[in-house]
Write a structure and sequence with these properties.
Layout: E1 10-13, H1 15-18, H2 29-34, H3 36-42, E2 46-49, E3 53-54, E4 66-70, H4 77-89, E5 93-98, H5 108-113, E6 127-128, E7 148-151, E8 156-159, H6 174-188, E9 194-197, H7 218-228, E10 236-240, H8 246-253, E11 262-264, H9 287-299, E12 309-310, H10 320-323, H11 331-343, E13 348-352, H12 373-384, H13 389-399, H14 436-441, H15 446-459, H16 461-465, E14 467-470, E15 478-485, E16 488-495, E17 501-503, E18 509-515, E19 526-528, E20 533-538
Helix pairs in contact: 11-15, 12-13
The protein binds alpha-D-glucopyranose and calcium ion.
Alpha-D-glucopyranose binds near residues 59, 62, 198 and 199.
Length: about 550
Amino acid sequence: MTAWWKNAVVYQVYPKSFQDSNGDGIGDIKGITSRLDYLAKLGIDAIWLSPVYKSPGIDNGYDISDYEEIDPQYGTMEDMDELIQEAKKRNIRIVMDLVVNHTSDKHKWFIESRKSKDNPYRDYYIWRDPVEGHEPNELTSAFSGSAWKFDKKTGQYYLHFFADQQPDLNWKNPELRQKIYDMMNFWINKGIGGFRMDVIELIGKDPDKMIRENGPMLHPYLKEMNEHTFNGKDLMTVGETWNATPAIAEEYSDPARKELSMVFQFENQSLDQQAGKEKWYLRKLDLGELKKVLVKWQTQIDFNHAWNSLFWENHDIPRVISRWGNDKEYRVQSAKMFAIVLHMMHGTPYIYNGEEIGMTNCPVKNINEVEDIESINMYHERLQKGYSKNELLRSINTKGRDNARTPMQWSNKENSGFTEGTPWLHVNPNYQNINVQAALGDPDSIFYTYQKLIKLRHENPIVVDGDFKLIKNTGDNILAYYRILGNEKWLVVANLSENKEQLSLEDELQKVLISNYPPKSNLKNMTLEPYEAFSAIVK
Ligand code: GLC
Ligand code: CA
């Protein structure tokens, strides 16, 4: 039997920005429940819900102070139970975000841990003595500065790979691990669909040896977690793994190893930054390189013994059409092109809220408009080092996380129908034209391309199981491939660029399944329009 998540399309909801139900300007669980019919219409099978647990909100919920409570700004546990049940009625599963590399510094474990060196919770976190009056070593935080924070009370440093207020848990402690498994079972018993595992590649860390990701204990811990929690249950698990290679992705997702269903890999994310540097150092994307990475992850994974996820966007990365497409004159065409290319590939596709209507990045003019801790910390750190305001804002406007976090654009009503109050983060002014209501009213909208792609996947095993075969020698700007299952052969052609391109194929065209321009009638001597893409049955 094929696991349900191999046929599934997952939709990520960023709760703070999805739908406000009570006018406080902050999206909430009741708001999500009120939009389930919309998601059912799109056709998705599961929602990955970014964190709604109790949290001080330093990193919008990725700093959790109680794993078994809902943050009051998002609602109550009753609201959460209702969301799970209402989603189930529509055959939608709720996949929870599992953030267990770190907690909030307001979690009761950390409050205890920092009290004294002999506190029973001391060892739940990673504490080290100063070395010659300094940090224990050079490890840095993803949110700027050292990964070590001095705590006066006991005269030691604790480790935090993210904000100071996100102390890293010590996975070497078996009691801590058991508490996490218990918490996971609490959620599993509520009837959720699985877990998306935040920065899971970090849990095997060995900070004394400067090992962050892919540490020696990572896979043993995942096996143990599997055995104590989701083993034998019909759940989906997806790990966030920035440093996975295809071989590593196979280790995570080979069913025989009993770890995870699949991982998110991010190899294409570094293509538009300068080699060896951080994401803020911009570089123009080379389409040939993008194509290479896409093909690599289709061909270097053995899908008979492993699985993979497919995505362009999430809450940490910019909107794909603004980044690699054209969010102005070819907004609709490039959005559909990205959708067709990705949803016809082998793996489980994810859609990030707003992607299905072609939402775009939202540039700011001043750092005061920014809410994201990563961008804010980077800005202040580099300003001090002498970078100019303009270049820092340019980096933030290109790569900053707020770009994809602006409120969901539901209609052309004030604040895009997201809230009746003041939104926590500015609404993108283009909501007047780009919104769900407009998309639903236009049979030619990006929304219906996504809807159709989901339907094609659900109804055709070739999309789920077909082999991927690249068509070679098409140049950097054209990505063309087949999916092949038994005697069936589907063709996918995409012009990744905004130039007109030429392509001639020998196959006989049988039926165009989906396209973003008027369908071709012949595969010979084709002229591909800017961002043109289509899929067709061929012989
Ligand atoms: C992951 C999340 C990101 C968060 C970080 C720390 O990368 O996706 O939003 O800031 O982990 O939890
Ligand atoms: Ca609210």
